Design the sequence.
């Protein structure tokens, strides 16, 4: 092993790779990652010189990381097509447009400064899932690299090709006034432009690129960012507020009254809107999403069906692909649209465009559209600490315990559990549509807990208390990152 090589094995996550640079990985480690990825791409494509699209976000050190990764890829024989400063969805789009064999995007998404990482994929429109990540980790750490001679070319002006692709087919008739917030992240040079091109009146908020992220992290689940958008919506009497994350694959939405709308509810509104033109469609939603999808009257009327699946952008996009679904929605703000609406991958700007189509078609305010959905009482996504080496065992034990509770017809707040879904942790539901979820986090030493009831705040709280009691009893749970009020 090279003397100063540094690469922490824990940086290989479920569906991408992330490290603190230089604490957990150095440039030699990044080059080895490139060698591992190049070897994996050659193995899967069965080509000596596969073409790999490479791009990077606007962090101060991303260019340096990209150079190190490219060295590794080139040493295996990969031919690189570097499209420069990019969003993750722009790199995914380039694979389709340029008909390349694989992608590697240097980004740590919405993580704080100091983090770096790579989002990668081989099959078009799909990113690495746990199986591919496990294989990549084994190749990289075992240093079983293929040797070859790759070449590199720079693709000029690809940003314009990407912008044009989204702009030309999405013109709207209604003049929608939109706050576009980018947290000084890379989306700032894309989102305002594209939304203006489709016909929006755009008011920019923190769209100037600044790798110090002076105000807040570009993360549409961050309360600071959401509050800033809310204030801007109210001050400007805007129709909608959009917040984009650091690499542009997620969006958060604020309505015309300045209220945050959880992404799963936005997903349901978009699904309803699409179902009128696309009967018999299938929609994929993650297990953290509202229970309203399962018995929505408008979806039913249009013979559309929702399927709940594993949380995580890679899992949902693969399910959208394999089920040939029209779209997929994840509560964290990753939305996926298959042809004719998109290419199957998550693109925050395309998601915002679909919200604009929704407002354009219905000619109603977002606050009015939300009032058209049944009221539910939703918890935030809560993450109690649980060690990485213990979290999956804790969840398995709780699954068995809840199965016993269902079998013995034990009631929680006078309700029996009627249905259990175990595709990702356990989601257990009651006759009245209330439900709770416990799963292991994919990328942090924690569990994930979500609760929803269409009946009352009280029932939501009772289900949470039931979950919390089960968790505390294990003796393996630490502090929550946030709890319900």
Sequence:
């Amino acid at each position: 092993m090279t003397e100063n090589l540094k690469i922490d094995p824990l940086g290989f996550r479920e569906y991408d790779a992330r490290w603190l640079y230089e604490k957990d990985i150095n440039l030699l480690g990044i080059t080895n990652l490139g060698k591992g990825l190049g070897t994996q791409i050659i193995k899967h494509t069965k080509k000596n010189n596969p073409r790999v699209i490479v791009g990077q976000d606007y962090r101060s050190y991303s260019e340096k990381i990209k150079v190190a990764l490219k060295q590794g890829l080139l040493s295996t024989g990969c031919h690189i097509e570097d499209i420069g400063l990019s969003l993750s969805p722009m790199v995914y789009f380039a694979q389709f447009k340029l008909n390349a064999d694989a992608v590697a995007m240097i980004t740590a998404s919405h993580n704080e400064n100091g983090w770096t990482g790579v989002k990668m994929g081989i099959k078009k429109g799909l990113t690495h899932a746990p199986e591919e990540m496990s294989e990549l980790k084994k190749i990289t750490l075992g240093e079983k690299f293929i040797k070859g001679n790759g070449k590199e070319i720079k693709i000029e002006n690809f940003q314009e090709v990407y912008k044009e692709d989204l702009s030309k087919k999405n013109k709207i008739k209604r003049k929608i006034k939109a706050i576009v917030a980018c947290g000084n992240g890379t989306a700032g040079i894309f989102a305002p432009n594209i939304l203006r091109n489709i016909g929006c009146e755009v008011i920019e908020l923190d769209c100037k690129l600044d790798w110090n992220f002076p105000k807040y992290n570009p993360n549409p689940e961050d309360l600071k960012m959401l509050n800033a958008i809310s204030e801007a919506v109210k001050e400007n009497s805007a129709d909608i507020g959009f917040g984009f994350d650091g690499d542009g694959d997620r969006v958060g939405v604020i309505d015309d009254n300045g209220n945050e709308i959880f992404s799963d509810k936005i997903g349901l509104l978009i699904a309803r809107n699409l179902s009128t033109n696309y009967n018999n469609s299938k929609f994929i939603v993650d297990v953290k999403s509202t229970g309203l999808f399962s018995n929505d009257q408008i979806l039913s009327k249009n013979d559309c069906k929702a399927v709940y699946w594993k949380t995580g952008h890679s899992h949902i996009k693969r399910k959208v692909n394999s089920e040939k679904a029209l779209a997929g929605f994840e509560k964290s703000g990753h939305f996926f649209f298959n042809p004719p609406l998109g290419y199957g991958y998550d693109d925050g700007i395309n998601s915002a465009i679909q919200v604009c189509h929704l407002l354009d078609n219905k000619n109603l305010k977002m606050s009015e559209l939300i009032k058209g959905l049944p009221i539910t009482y939703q918890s935030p996504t809560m993450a109690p600490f649980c060690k990485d080496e213990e979290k999956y065992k804790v969840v398995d034990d709780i699954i068995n315990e809840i199965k016993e509770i269902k079998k013995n017809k034990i009631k929680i707040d006078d309700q029996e559990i009627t249905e259990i879904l175990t595709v990702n942790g356990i989601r257990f539901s009651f006759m009245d549509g209330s439900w709770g979820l416990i799963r292991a986090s994919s990328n942090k030493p924690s569990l994930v807990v979500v609760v929803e009831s269409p009946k009352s705040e009280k029932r939501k709280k009772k289900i949470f208390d039931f979950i919390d009691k089960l968790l505390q009893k294990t003796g393996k749970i630490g502090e929550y990152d946030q709890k319900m009020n």
Remarks:
- The radius of gyration is 22 Å.
- The chain has three domains: 9-156, 158-374, 377-474.
- The domain at 377-474 is CATH 3.30.310.50 (TATA-Binding Protein).
